[in-house]
Amino acid sequence: MRITVVGSINLDLVATAPQLPAPGETVTGATLARHPGGKGANQALAAEKLGAEVCLIGRVGDDAMAGEALALMEGLGVDLAGVEVDVAAPTGVALIAVDPTGENQIVVAAGANHMVTPEQLPQRIEGALIVQLELPIETVEAAVGRATGFVCANLAPAAPVSELLLRRADLIVVNETEAAFYGDGLHRGGGRVVVTKGARGAAMYQRGVEMAWATPPAVEAVDATGAGDAFVAAITVALLEGMDPAEALRFACAAGAFAATRPGAQPSAPERDQVKALLNAQ
After folding, report:
1. pLDDT band at 101 (very low <50, low <70, confident <90, very high)
2. Which of 42, 142, 159, 191 has the fewest CB atoms within 10 Å around its CB?
């Protein structure tokens, strides 16, 4: 199973604090960690760990942070031939604050991610494709237009997209906030739509009709960063493997739940056996 991910690559600077600050408030007593991140990179690494053969297309800066941002994917064997180096823009950075329950606040400086253009894409993208919206919209649209196989569009963060993208996607994944942003437009195409609802689970729809629902295993959350990306990778892998909607949702919910039990977006992505063990423990 080959999956191409066209998406963002960041270095995450994660401050774990006793509480998240209110507007204008300073919170002390935090600890700092650095982890590879970016929605595209997170989903690429998660899909690789779940058994897919993954190629990532993206962009980093010509700086020391690029090596850190790519390190885990390199070690795992993700194909990074499609990652280009930008000499003018820095590697993307996400500033993340996390509280003891795993809730987070995230501010992203996109850097080189905003320099990924349609010219960087191959004329045909073979196999399956996963996209998100942390790259320029025109690049995301071009990737979807050049895809020859299954397309998963994780419409996050929410932003206007074309009717063509909504209709072309075989799978759209959004959270409740993003679902409210897009409204009924999500369901006008013939593809499946998954709406995630955090600890309450996730539902799959087709043409607005609910097909399946699943709830995640109960876990002790440490850091929710990357849990949604693990879910996107897992639901894509599951459907490509031929799992039925309910089974695929359970698998993806377990992957997301496991990711929330570990710090960092990429270090927390589960192996296949870890997802199965969590499902079996229910």
Report:
1. confident
2. 159
225 against 150, higher pLDDT: 150
pLDDT-derived band at 223, boundaries 50, 70, 90: confident
What's the burial of 220, exposed, middle or buried (CB within 10 Å: 0-12/13-18/19+)? exposed
Residue type at 33 in one-letter notation = A
Q: For residue 58, what are its two tokens? A: 């993206």
**Residues belonging to the active site:** 229
Q: CA nearest 110: which of 11, 216, 212?
A: 11
Half-sphere exposure of 191 (CA within 13 A, CB side): 23
Question: Rounded to whole angstroms, how far apart are CA atoms 277 and 98?
Answer: 27
Q: What is the DSSP string of the chain?
A: -EEEEE---EEEEEEE-SSPPPTT------EEEEEEE-HHHHHHHHHHHTT-EEEEEEEEESSHHHHHHHHHHHHHT-EEEEEEEESSSPPEEEEEEE-TTS-EEEEEE-GGGGG--GGGS-SSB-SEEEE-SSS-HHHHHHHHHHB-S-EEEE--S-----HHHHHH-SEEEEEHHHHHHHGGGGGSSSSEEEEE-GGG-EEEEETTEEEEEE-PPP---S--TTHHHHHHHHHHHHHHTT--HHHHHHHHHHHHHHHTTSSSTTTTPPPHHHHHHHHHT-
Contacts of 217 (CB under 8 A, 6+ apart): 253, 254, 257, 278, 279, 281, 282
Backbone angles phi, psi at 261, to 5 degrees: -90, 0
